[in-house]
Amino acid sequence: MSVITADLRNYPLYIRSVPTQNELKFHYTVHTSLDVVEEKVSAVGKALPDQRELYLGLLYPTEDYKVYGYVTNSKVKFVIVVDSSNTSLRDNEIRSMFRKLHSSFTDVMCNPFYNPGDTIQSKSFDSIVSAMMVQSS
Amino acid sequence: MAQCAQSVQEFVQDSFVPTVAVLCSADAERVTRRNNLSFPELLRPFCRLTSEGHLRDPNNLVVVVKGLRISVTGVNTQPLQPGEVRKLLSQAVSGCQPPEGLPANVVTAGDYDLNISDRSVKASVPWYSDWKDTFTQLSSSKFYTATTPWFEAYRENFLQSMPASDHEFLNHYLACMLVVSSREAAPTEQFQRLSQEQHRVQHSGEYTHPKWFIPNTLKYYVLLHDISDGDEQRADSVYEDMKQRYGTQCCYLLKINSRAAAAGPAEQMPDPWSQYLQKSRAQSPVSPAVLSEVDGHDVFCACVAVNSIDTSRKQGGLPASSTPVAHGACLTLNDHDRIRQFIQEFTFRGLLPHIEKNIRQLNDQLVSRKGLSRSLFSATKKWFGGGKVPEKSIAELKNTAGLLYPPEAPELQIRKMADLCFLVQHYELAYSCYHTAKKDFLSDQAMLYAAGALEMAAMSAFLQSGAPRPYPAHYMETAIQTYRDVCKNMVLAERCALFSAEVLKSQVKYSEAAALLIKMTSEDSDLRSALLLEQAAHCFINMRSPMVRKFAFHMILSGHRFSKAGQKRHALRCYCQAMQVYKGKGWTLAEDHINFTIGRQSFTLRQPENAIAAFRHILINDSKQVATQQSAFLREYLYVYKSVSQSSSDVTLPQLPLPCLHSAQTRVFFGHERRLAEGEKQAATHVWLDQEYDGEQAQLWAELEEQVVGVANKGSVPIGFQPTQYCLSCHTDNLRYPLAVVEEPIIVEVVFRNPLKVPLALAELSLLWKFTPKDFSRPPGGVPGEALSNEKEVTALNDIISTEVIPEFTIGPEETKVARLQLLPHKTGELQVLSVLYSLGTVEEDNGTTSRPTFVRGRQDLEIQGPRLNTTKEEKTSVRHGPDHRLDPVITPPMPLLEVFFINFPTGLLCGEIRKAWVEFVNVSAVPLTGLRVASTHPEFFTFGCAASDLTPVTPTASEHCSAYKTMATPPSVAATMLVSPAMFGVSGDDRPTVAEIPLVGGGLGPGEALQIPLWLRGPDREGVHEINFLFYYESVEKNAKLSHRVLRHKAFICASRSLSVRATACHSNTLPRRGGAEEEGGSSMLVFVDVENINTSEAGVREFHIVQVSSSSRQWRLHTCINPTGDRDSRLASRERGKLCFRATRCRTQEGETHARKYTFADLNLGNEQIVSSTTPCADFFFRRGSPSEAQKGGVSVGGANHTRRQSLTPAGGADDGVTGVVQKCSEVELNIIVLWKAYVVEDNKQLILEGQLHVALQTVGKEACSVPQKEEAQEMVLLKFKPDQPPPVSRPTLEQLSRLIKTCLHYPESYDHPFPQKSLCMVPVTLTLSNCSLAQVDVIIDLRHKTTSPESLEVHGTFTWLGQTQYKLQLRPHEVQRLVLKACFFQAGVYNLGTPRVFAKMAQAGTMCETSQQSSMPALIVINSV
């Protein structure tokens, strides 16, 4: 499972994945999924930008993984990749995970010492992500 | 984007064309061979028809055939083996590379600018910017964004190499050309033979290949006539004969070779064959093994071996392929026309009618069977389908995909008809036939046939003009799925996918096309997967909202497959294109992976520069990879680098990426490494690289140097003076070329950082320099020597500049480390340090291996950017940097080099303690030095003594237990005085001497000489740690043009602890000095009270203090006698004890005061038996070096004096009032400095030590207390910042109090007076009133005796009396004049009276009446009148 946050310009802000040995693959997968995110956002976003659902749902399934996406109003993207075989995670769980991520990310942003655009090194963010990973696996 | 030069329609049409077989006689072959062409090849360029053809369909509607192309091949052309096909395709792909050097095509997608190699016409216009435009352009298919010619080549070859299949007839032979030469002895028989041959091939059943469309194949008889050497008449006659025999429709006389071959290429003929043949030639080098295999299977070899150029070339023509062969050398343009004419004739007269006829026949057959409903027919087949069963079982044996029909099966007839219609572009009919056939096949479960029908139905639906029905994409999908999954026929599936993708793309359904293409990738063919993935990637980027990241990802996948397929160039290209998306976006792992692959591919493709650049990129960036990965990257890089550097013979070493070199932090140090303390000797700290740069300190040193240079140059600092900088860093001013001295080392400190998680090993680290020798002693303008460099061999030029080489240098993971590299110049000139040379290698973890880790040699340039300029507007608006010359030193001729050692230099002192130390000066250079001076921030701290005093022991050891002072044994008595001029102690003026000249024997120090001289130190007055800077200045005896002087720095830290606190006050003594002696003294005296307190806080150590002597030093006053304590009694002070001393001070002799205004009188009052001669070294030295009173005692003790001086300076034209004030104040001013000399008994390590010291107190105003310990300067700290200039203080009149001190009065009278009142009622007592003028001005005095005391208590206490005689006196007193006035008091009765009633008014003689004030009311002067 992997959690990746990318900012408005699609620079990665935070990448975390377990197990770590396949990290490169996750990178590629998530980077590619940003295209889908943009597509979805541009498709939905025009109609009602304010009431847009932040959760984008399943972006696309690959053979081994399911990729879920979430975009904040400031176009910060969260992507969660989970194992296809993991059936315990339903749409609702994923949605709540994203909510948690989002609120934690907001906390990071509120930190006056955080420089927007830097990679996130916040310990609390880290621990929340770890907790989610433990819970989901 | 795979867009070929044709539209999709054209592409599909051209992919399915009528094929015609050629059977050629040997003679005819010979005729065409003259043009280096076989007969099919000869025709090939002319196979496209330029004019429209017509035919009628079964319903008698005219079908127009536009742009028909026919395909002509030798009948015996073998289908290629799968392996061969693969080889062919891979060659086609690898042979087709993107053009280099063409303008790049930049596709801007979102925030990405993609540079896709391309020869597009539309390179400059981002096509998607206007979607409508794009749409129209795409549908018209005139402009293409990115071409992938390798894909087109692949596709063309793939389609050509498609084997003829049984389920479709599109590439089955429709007709056969029989070609016979006119030179043949019996052409007719030859035709006969060929005809039989064809019949045999088609019908004998011996051959599975070639396949024929219809049983009665059209035979077309061609008589080939060679014009240049044939008999034309004979040919004509044979042709006539043929026409009679076969009918005019089926015969043709083709005349070629109008020209003799010898004519050569004199005439530039167009060569239409080259574009058709060149490709196949390029493909020809097939491995011999495959060739022989092919030959073995070549069943036609025996009869018509020569017919095919293909076979002949395979058999022996290999060498021919290497030389470019001119085709059609014997053909003129007329011949070309003839061939074109021939093809047209063949098509329109022969082929099309033949097709038309066959369509009709098939249609008739179908119609005749129409009696039975198709569905009923199939239904009955299903029910009573016994006839089919055996065939089905056979089919199942052969083909799991379903049943196999016999060639003449009725189900195939409709398919045949559909194919025919399709070939002649009658797509409407073709579609309906395919559709019908599809239903049939599906109901028969003949999946292969059904898939074929579906595919072609979709194609014909697409090709129908006017598009009555939408393109049935699902047909294609089903077809592909069936081909792939059911029939396991990837080739057909692939063909189907290629067409479908092309169609979808033309309909702007890019995502569907991409999905289709991606689905087609599989494990069995890397090349196909790679190409399809690449196409899919192109689809993504061409979408309405370009999916750049998907593009990149699929490019990477494609690159991976390309590399697996051995297409390294294509792989590299793909990765490079993907790189553009990932570059610099923070996806570092992906970026590293791509870079790594690019590096590897480039290396295998012999592009080592690119490989190194790619690897370099991985290593330079802050890698997030794990350590093992990093070390792998590093090893790979080193390996590549090594192989490159071995191959290239380039002189200049390449740049290395690791470790990171922080050029800006480079520091340069000039001079030797600092020698540390040797035993008791403590070397001057000077400057060294270990010291951190401190801006304030640097400023301090620069100021000191400026001072000392100013003194050395007799008061003026030369223009262009720059402080000496020994250590250059990013903080120093590096605009000038620094100066280094020959034979003195230059140390360059470079900062390396290892960004990796693995350690790095550097070896043979050294500096690379360039040196231009120059002789500075000669006049300028001489020709500079040639520049030298140690680039080739590091130590080769060690006789000019010795270069230090560090053999090994290891940097740990993520470590920042400095390396100090030394150069020692032996010649004068200009040096430039260019870069760092080193070998980079890995650190082997396991020590078991004996193999030396790989080291590669390279360099990194030290490029230092100067500070950013910010003075002019231009510089502010743009980013400009100044020069930085810290690495370009100028080597100057030899200069003296001084080393300074301190001996017995203490680290801790009591405040005011005097300690004697020694200092040693050594000239370590080969040049004599002179003009040694020292400047210091604390000149009061040390002295070298005055020149006159040399009574101290000569060596440091001898002086250990002696007092630092010069002493004389004298009993305590009246003070001994001595007059001393401050000039003797090097003090001139009031300012403190910050620069002291050091007395050298003979004025200089020769090479290698050393000198030890004593040095007295006095503990600072304030407690705490003091940082004391010494700057030693010296010059060379000879003038050096470049370097006028040198300096040596020393910084000492002294910890001062509290000793004594001395407070002193001066009071006017009211008593007049005794008559006689006292009057000679000048008439006035003062009392000086000195409070001494032991404020030492250290518990151990100091036991007690003894005040041994109190001395005074002043220009006007001196201590005269000691009042308390009397006698020779040390006043000792234990901890926290306080003692009070009282002295009388008198004014010095005036005449001496006048003439020697600048001389100081020292008066010593010793309390013990020893007198310390305070007027000599070191006591007087320190006295003169003490801080000036106003500076040292700002604390408010002497505010009056300070104020006074300030006011004078502010209002110079203050007028009379000011003068008055001055005079008035003068009289209350004293300028008396008290020096308290003490001894402290200290126990240290069970040894008793006696420490000596002196404290200074400057008394300035009568009545004000002065203190030796500076007060806390709170008042000073709290001053508010003022933004307005200070208002000049108002010209104040002198205060009453001050004025009242002008005149001192004293009444002299008998204390008691006996008077016989009974006898005489009036008692008259003489009273003397002494008036003494304290000021230096004339004073008018009015004495008024009439005044009565008004205070009530005086009335009560005292009786009344009267003054007799004159009641008011007016006197004028000269400065310091004493006048006596004899008064008479008259008493009437006995009693106690107060005589102090006279009021004295004084005013300045020259001032107005304003300042008249009553003088100090005198003390009650009581007189007792006794009645006797």
From TrEMBL, chain A:
It comes from the Eukaryota. One of its GO terms (cellular component) is perinuclear region of cytoplasm. PANTHER family: TRAFFICKING PROTEIN PARTICLE COMPLEX SUBUNIT 2 (PTHR12403). The gene is TRAPPC2L. SUPFAM superfamilies: SNARE-like (SSF64356). It is found in: Cytoplasm, Perinuclear region. This is Trafficking protein particle complex subunit 2-like protein. Keywords: ER-Golgi transport, Transport. InterPro entries: Longin-like_dom_sf, Sedlin, TRAPPC2L. Belongs to the TRAPP small subunits family. Sedlin subfamily. The keyword S-adenosyl-L-methionine does not apply.
UniProtKB/TrEMBL annotation, chain B:
Residues 1052-1257 form the TPPC8 third Ig-like domain. Residues 1191-1215 are annotated as: Disordered. It comes from the Eukaryota. Signal peptide: none annotated. Residues 1302-1403 form the TPPC8 C-terminal Ig-like domain. Residues 911-1048 form the TPPC8 second Ig-like domain. GO terms for cellular component: TRAPPIII protein complex. Residues 690-910 form the TPPC8 first Ig-like domain. It holds the Pfam family Ig_TPPC8_3rd. This is Trafficking protein particle complex 8. It comes from Electrophorus electricus.
